[in-house]
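Dock adenosine-5'-diphosphate; give full complex structure.
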Amino acid sequence: MGGRTYIGAVSRDRPTDPTFVSSEELLARSTAQGARGIFVRFVLVVLGINLVIGGAVVAFDIWSSVRETRESLESSAKHALYVADRLHAAQPDLPLGAIVTRASELTGMPMALLDARGEVVTSTSPKLAGGLRVVYGSHLSPGIRYEIREDLGEVSGAWMVRPFLEGARLVVVVPHTVEDEGRVEYFTISAGVLALGEAFTLLAMLLSANWILRRPLARLVNELTSALARDVQRRQLAEQSLHAKELQLLQRARLASLGEMATGVAHELSQPLNNIGLLASRVTRRALDDQPDPAFVQDKLQKIQGQVQRASRLIDQLRAFGRPAVHNMALFPIDRPVHAVLDLLQQQLQNRGIAVKVDIPADLPQACGDEAQLEQVLINLINNARDALEDRPADPSCPAIELTAEAVRPSADAEAEVHLRVADNGPGIPSSVAERVFEPFFTTKEVGKGTGLGLSISYALVRGFGGRLELSSIPGGWTTFTLLLKTTLVSATKDALHAGADDPAG
Ligand code: ADP
């Protein structure tokens, strides 16, 4: 069988994976494999049982045949001795040697007569005298012995010794051959029958294997696979409906957020527009005056510009939220964007009495990302910290923002990351709020002050260059946002690709 692999050009309807195996093929393969495994085991067991039973039957037959043969030999020997007895009874004057010779002639069995000292008096076969020494040595005890040996020639067989008249002993041999016990034939025939039986069993099993095993197995595998497929399908459907529900919820949440944002945006935009309107009408009025006041006009026009900037900042933020970001990825020392941002914000932080502490070691690896976007993220984080410190209810004595960085190796074989922390000792973030801070449009700030877009945009930007943005906050303690940045372009790009799916702004 073996799996078919698709090599070279791939046709339209075939999957591009060269190791692809269709489900029909898998089904056929597993059925055949299963059937083969069961069949081989089955054959081994049946043949083994056959061999054991056959062997036992053959052994029993051999044993009983030998026993029967020996019984018949014994009765023949007894018969010969009986003939000798009868001859003596009929002719008591006949010498013992003549009786023995006569009895041997009548029965056709070799006989010998030994005197009381064990010397051979008469022997009807020359081989018998020699054989006596071979079989009995010097102890000729009465009884029957089976000496079926080739070296004894015609006197191989059952040897029976019996006391005879005048202290003599009579020996009779019932000749016998190895073949007489039927062993060889029996072995041959039995082995043949056994082999035939085995061959027949094997053949029958081979022929019936398809019917006995393969078809029911195929049915079983088929049922199992379709049950599995049904199960998977059911699960997929369940997941799909769950997903659809989640999407619905998300959609609803987005709509709600959009509603909240729309209110915020309307307010945020209407304020500068109102102000612009007011300022413009005052400038117009003054321009119509007889005594124009250039200083007054310049001041109002500057204010109008400020209001325009305020409105366009909001519009920029909204745009950034809607547009997929393009990242100019590069490696840079992390202190560079930190100092660039602080140069911009330091003054206003100082004006608010907020102390800024920076602790960035010189030997850090370079961080990977879009430096300009990272600056934007830092501005968001520092502005949030500033707002939080302004809200701080108690202990206004030492409001502070700390920017610290370190190199961290997440595991022994992983590459180092640069962790940049932006922390403030403001009021902290309660966990119910912390859960939602990265959501687009989520804000706790008063209408017109916050749009709820800063953190979600920051999160998406950082994910976009393969990093992460994490929050830890101890209510009443320090609030820390940590930027975890990659240190090589390769891993940054790889992680950025993975990040696409969970971009909350996307
Ligand atoms: P916005 O600043 O416009 O509200 P953000 O997405 O930047 O939007 O922040 C969302 C919310 O997260 C804020 O309204 C505020 O409740 C909370 N937050 C962010 N940073 C901090 C901080 N450093 N301390 C306390 N709360 C914070």
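Observed: The pocket of adenosine-5'-diphosphate is lined by residues 380, 384-385, 388, 424, 426, 429, 433, 437, 442-445, 450-456, 479 (CB under 6 Å).
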